[in-house]
């Protein structure tokens, strides 16, 4: 039995029945990392010592009979979630030597649940990108085809889960950064409702859009991780004080009478690969056979989402990233003698080209004389996009759409053309603008064997419904059992 | 939309960035392309539509004004490039 390839819930059963120990499980995961990470390059920092000592504690908890579902489970963490005493780089030169003095709330929750931290995984610098190629530290490869990107920005999280280098991972999603890499790597990824999971200790990119969520090998595991990380946190004034249900209890294979909306704006052949179109079409048939009612709907302002997003997100980013000034933490260029010149030299040295591009764009959009034309206009369109969804959810329960227009593209294919890269986010951005939950679940493969994800979106705080739909789909299709064939060194 | 070198340099100054000479033209072209694309928003009349700055309706998250345990001062400055006795050291500000 390959312990590293277990799901969280299967590993839990084995741990509970004392068939394996948490220490054996953690060791198996590190053996796997040593074998395949030299070619995948998902990890920025491996925390083997911490993991083994956490596993030892987990084994004691298990013998005392007080374990829960995450006790002893090896989890990878996107490198923009603050981990006390463990470097948190945001895959940026400017934070390469930053070690947080505190934990993000989600880390406190994972630790309290007895999870084992395997390490910190790669991403696009400050989560800005759709391919993880914008990492200032390394290039992560797609485990299904090493010449291709894993998607992004949570590309390290998705690749680590797909390559069995952890049992589950945390990522963050500002415009699709969990769902798109999950789709490209053939794993499950959930972006919760804005406010469901505390952002305290999540390094901010665009504060009104960012949300932490799980990437896992199946839907049950996503429910388990989401159970642990969800909930109100007084330290995040945007977290919402509402009950978190036990998401596992909603996973059933009954979809009778559930209304699934098919938005015509998302089911277009315009720029969408035939492989994606046919996988999504097959998925619709699966739901129909399961007794769901498919209905045509319209989200008429979809065509404006990319433009609105690429004003709002860079505007918020330009403000959030003002804090990297060479004073409080991170890099400092000591060459200049004046304070202002030190700021400029530090920031220019520390930020990569995509981050600088977005800071420039956001600063432009917020600068005197342009605010109404850009930021305010985009925020008004955000209202219209939100209203589209609210009207749609008056008549349907779940919205079904592709995640990305194409399967994973080649490394280097889109790096010179930022606008083309931005346009590939068309199907995922709207959920962030509206604040609703969305997920990606594997729904097939391209002719060349690349995974394709199906997106399911739900209304506010209705994660249980999309998880249930994804669970049913998974049970009916079994795409999630297919694994990439990695040549092991 | 055309973005001039001067505009790039002006915005870079506001954002406290030095743009390398070799990158100015590239950024000017790319920002121009993106802003041109963003013009599609002008096709939509948004008169009277309130802006959304926050997706979920919560406002004024008040809390009791009470002292709680907080980060130790030395821990707070532990990542500073330069610090002394719990203070951040910066280059001279006043001439």
Brief overview:
The complex is a heterodimer of chains A (489) and B (95). By secondary structure, chain A is an alpha/beta fold.
- Any idea what the CATH architecture of the domain at 3-255 in chain A is? Alpha-Beta Complex
Largest sheet of chain B: 2 strands, antiparallel
Structural class of chain B: mainly alpha
Q: State the major sheet of chain A.
A: 11 strands, mixed
Q: Total helix count of chain A?
A: 15
Describe this entry's structure for a reader.
- The complex is a heterodimer of chains A (489) and B (95).
- With 489 residues, chain A is an alpha/beta fold.
- Chain A has a domain at 3-255: Amidase signature (AS) enzymes (Alpha-Beta Complex).
- Helices cover 38% and strands 12% of the residues of chain A.
- Chain A has helices at 8-16, 22-40, 48-63, 105-112, 155-162, 179-185, 219-229, 274-289, 305-320, 339-350, 353-366, 372-395, 418-423, 429-434, 463-477, and strands at residues 43-46, 74-78, 116-121, 168-173, 188-191, 211-216, 259-263, 293-297, 398-402, 438-445, 451-457.
- Chain A has an eleven-stranded mixed sheet with strand order 1-3-2-4-6-5-10-11-9-7-8, sandwiched between helices.
- In chain A, helix 2 packs antiparallel against helix 3 (48-63), helix 5 runs parallel beside helix 6 (179-185) and helix 7 (219-229) packs antiparallel against helix 15 (463-477).
- Chain A starts with 7 loop residues before the first helix and ends in a 12-residue tail after the last helix.
- Chain B has helices at 5-14, 21-38, 73-76; strands spanning 83-84, 87-88.
- Chain B has three helices and two strands; from the N terminus they run αααββ.
- By secondary structure, chain B is mainly alpha-helical.
- In chain B, strands 1-2 form a two-stranded antiparallel ribbon.
- In chain B, strand 1 and strand 2 form a beta hairpin.
- Chain B has a domain at 5-43: Histone, subunit A, CATH 1.10.20.
- Chains A and B meet through helix 9, helix 10, helix 11, helix 12 and helix 13 of A and helix 1 and helix 2 of B.
């Amino acid at each position: 039995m390959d312990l590293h390839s277990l799901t969280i819930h299967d590993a839990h059963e084995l741990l509970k029945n004392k068939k394996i120990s948490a220490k054996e499980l953690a060791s198996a995961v590190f053996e796997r990392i040593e074998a395949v990470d030299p070619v995948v390059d998902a990890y920025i920092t491996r925390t083997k010592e911490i993991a083994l000592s956490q596993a030892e504690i987990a084994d004691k908890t298990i013998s005392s009979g007080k374990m829960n579902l995450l006790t002893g489970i090896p989890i990878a963490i996107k490198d923009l979630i603050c981990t006390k005493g463990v470097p948190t780089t945001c895959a940026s030169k400017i934070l390469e030597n930053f070690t947080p003095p505190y934990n993000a709330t989600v880390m406190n929750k994972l630790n309290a649940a007895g999870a084992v931290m395997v390490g910190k995984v790669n991403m696009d610098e400050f989560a800005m990108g759709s391919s993880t190629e914008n990492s200032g530290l390394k290039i992560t490869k797609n485990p299904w085809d090493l010449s291709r990107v894993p998607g992004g920005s949570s590309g390290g999280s998705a690749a680590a889960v797909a390559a069995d280098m952890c049992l589950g991972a945390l990522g963050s999603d500002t415009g699709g950064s969990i769902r798109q890499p999950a789709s490209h790597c053939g794993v499950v990824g959930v972006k919760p409702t804005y406010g469901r999971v505390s952002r305290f200790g999540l390094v901010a990119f665009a504060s009104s859009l960012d949300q932490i969520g799980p990437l896992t090998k199946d839907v049950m595991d996503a429910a388990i991780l989401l159970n642990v990380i969800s909930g109100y946190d007084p330290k995040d004034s945007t977290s919402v004080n509402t009950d978190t249900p036990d998401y596992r209890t909603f996973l059933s294979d009954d979809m009778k009478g559930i209304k699934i909306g098919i938005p015509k704006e998302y089911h277009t052949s315009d720029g969408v690969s035939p492989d994606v179109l046919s996988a999504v079409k097959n998925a619709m048939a699966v739901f129909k056979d399961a007794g769901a009612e498919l209905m045509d709907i319209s989200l008429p302002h979809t065509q404006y989402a990319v433009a609105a997003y690429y004003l709002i997100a860079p505007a918020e980013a330009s403000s959030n990233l003002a804090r990297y000034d060479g004073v409080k933490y991170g890099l400092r260029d000591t060459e200049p003698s004046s304070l202002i010149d030190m700021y400029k030299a530090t920031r220019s040295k520390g930020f990569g080209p995509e981050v600088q591009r977005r800071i420039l764009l956001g600063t432009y959009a917020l600068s005197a004389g342009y605010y109404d034309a850009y930021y305010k206009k985009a925020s008004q369109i955000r209202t219209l996009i939100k209203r589209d969804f609210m009207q749609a959810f008056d008549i349907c329960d779940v919205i079904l759409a592709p995640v990305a227009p194409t399967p994973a593209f080649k490394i280097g294919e889109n790096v010179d053309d930022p606008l083309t890269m931005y346009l590939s986010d068309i199907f995922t951005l709207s959920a962030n603008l509206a604040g609703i939950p969305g997920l990606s679940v594997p729904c097939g493969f391209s002719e060349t064997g690349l995974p394709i994800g199906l997106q399911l979106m739900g209304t506010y705080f209705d994660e249980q419904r999309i998880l249930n739909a994804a669970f049913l789909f998974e049970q009916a299709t079994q795409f999630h059992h297919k694994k990439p064939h990695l040549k092991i060194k | 939309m055309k973005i001039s070198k001067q505009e790039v340099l002006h915005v870079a100054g506001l954002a406290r960035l030095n743009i390398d000479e070799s990158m100015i033209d590239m950024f000017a072209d790319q920002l121009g392309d993106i802003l041109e694309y963003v013009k599609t928003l002008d096709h939509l009349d948004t008169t009277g539509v309130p802006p959304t700055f926050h997706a979920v309706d919560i406002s004024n998250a008040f809390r009791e004004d009470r002292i709680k345990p907080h980060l130790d001062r030395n821990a707070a400055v532990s990542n500073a490039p330069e610090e002394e006795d719990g203070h951040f050291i910066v280059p001279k500000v006043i001439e």
